[in-house]
Structures are given as structure tokens and as C-alpha cells.
Amino acid sequence: MLLSSYRLGNLALPNRLVMAPMTRARAVDGKPTEAMATYYAQRATAGLIVTEGVHPNAVGQAGPFMPGLHTDGQVEAWRGVTGAVHANGGRIFAQLMHGGRIGHVEVAGHHPVGPSAIAAVTEVFTPSGVQSAPVPRALSAAEVTEQVQAFGDAARKAVEAGFDGVELHGANGYLIQQFLSSSANERTDGYGGSIAGRVRFAVEAVEAAVDAIGADRVGIRLSPGGEIQSIVEEDVPALYGELLKALPDIAYVHVMATADDEVLMGLRKAWPTAFIFNPGGQIGPHESTREQGERWLANGADLISYGRAYLANPDLVERFRLDLPLVSTDRETWFQTPHGYIDYPSYQH
């Protein structure tokens, strides 16, 4: 079933494998490189590729060497990536990731912003090394609207750059999840407090992207109950149930295994369009298996996303098809290094 075809919006996917978004930190001056085009093109047999997180505006950049999608130069550079993927027969969405309070003034010259002036209890990467996350500047109501619109503007630029669609990053402790979180969001206006208030930013950001490029080209990634980067969420089933009800019927939701099966199954049943499931949950030491993917397809997921398994196995679809062994990676090569990126070969028979 994992290797069967699937219709996602206007896209015909040849299989149900999705290459999950993974930070690789190899952009130069916010622009993707030729090596990045090669990296994604090597993995074009995936049913769908979702890129690493791409900041939708300058203040949204979470770390160094991350690509953006808010200048004409970035759009032009991304055309090299999307063109290479399409030439190899693939389909690719850009993941729009606003870091919010996860960032540093040294990264892009902007002090991080967030729903409230509450620092994440975590460390962030900067050009001068790892530092404690700073206290963000709380967004005014008018500024919240500006950040919402940034997602719509970036979605429009993504299509200009040749992407098939966009995925909004609502997981892993970044800006959208910061609004959902009771630990990062202590606002008393319409963007905080009640569940309806805390889901509002996510819904409006998705609506901005939909208005820009159409619902069939928009998805969102979620990590219900995920605690990465010191996020705390209260009443997860109610919070995410309300969010899914409030969202327009976009192409898909992409859900990580960060809650128990009962909660995740409830979200699957509540969502009317495609449901992408990532069985790996938050960052860990092991690649997800084909068996995990098949299990979740049997449980009602439509597509399965794989992250770490795609790092060293550009031909992951073929390895699953022929039951070939997977290659593991050295975590030291995940970011920035010249090796451990485009030098993993397909299986040699």
C-alpha cells in the first residue's frame, strides 16, 4: 500500500512516501545552492518532497545558513531547485517556517518576535556559536497581522519559484505552535487565552496562503502535544480538534507522532482531506521503518513522511520496493558539512 499511487489535490503521486522537511543548513545568503538542487533532485522518486524550513520574512529566520522565500533573488535561486526536481519527475512543496522566538539578532539582524515576551528554554544556533534563546519581543496586534500576511506573500513567491505548493510549519516550537502553546502565549487579546484565541494565528496564516495560491496547494504540519523547544500545550485533544475544525479544507495536514495513538486517531477521523503521518515523532536516533508506515496507512493515514531515512537513502522508494537495507547517517553531517549531503549513492546491486 505504501507504494500505491495517491491523488493529492491536483497532483498525481506515484507512491505514498513523503520526504519530510529537514533542516540541512547549507544555504548561502538565504539562497539555495546548486548542491541543494542536486540533493532534492536525487530524492525526486518520493511521492512528494517537502523542503527544509524556509523563512517567509527576514525576522522569521531561525538560524544561520537557512534559505528564505521573500526576495526576488531567493525566488530565482529556488527555480533551480524546483526545476531539477521536476526534471527528475518529482513534486515539491516549500515548507514555510517562521522561527518566532527561536532565533537571534546575530542571525539576520532582527530581534526575535513571539506572541509574548517569554523566552524558550533552549539553545539557538548563531554565527558565533550556540547561545541561549533570547526573550522575544511580543508582537502588537497590528504586527501579528503582518506576520500572518508574510505566509501569504511567501506562498505566492513559492509558486513563482516553481513549487507545487507550500506547507506551513505549525510544529516543533516555531511561531505557529508558539501561538497554540499555553507556555509561550500569554496574550489577553483575540490571539490568546481561550482555545479559539490560541488557534486563531494558525488559521489566519493558512487562510492567507490559501487566498494567495488556492487551498489545494496548501498544507500544514503539526506536532500535537510536542514539547520540543520548551513548548507546553494544554488539553491537546480539544486544542487540535478545534484547530482542525477551524481550518479551511486544505490539501493536507501533516501530523507528527507526538501524542498517543488515541489522540492521533481522533485527529485523523476529524480531518476531511489528506492526512500525512510522520511515525518518527520528534528528533531521535533511528530511521522510521516501512512497517511503521504500513501500520499507519492501515490506521487511516493517506501518506507517510520519512525524514532521517531520506538523508542517506535517496532511493528510499526503491529500497522499500525491493526490501533493500537502509543506510544510516552520522549526526555530525546533518548540518553544513560538505560531506554527508549529496554523496550518498543509490543502492548498488
Automatic annotation (TrEMBL):
Residues 7-324 form the NADH:flavin oxidoreductase/NADH oxidase N-terminal domain. It holds the Pfam family Oxidored_FMN. It comes from Lentzea albidocapillata. The lineage of its organism: Bacteria, Bacillati, Actinomycetota, Actinomycetes, Pseudonocardiales. InterPro entries: Aldolase_TIM, OxRdtase_FMN_N, Oye-like. This is N-ethylmaleimide reductase. GO terms for molecular function: FMN binding; oxidoreductase activity. SUPFAM superfamilies: FMN-linked oxidoreductases.
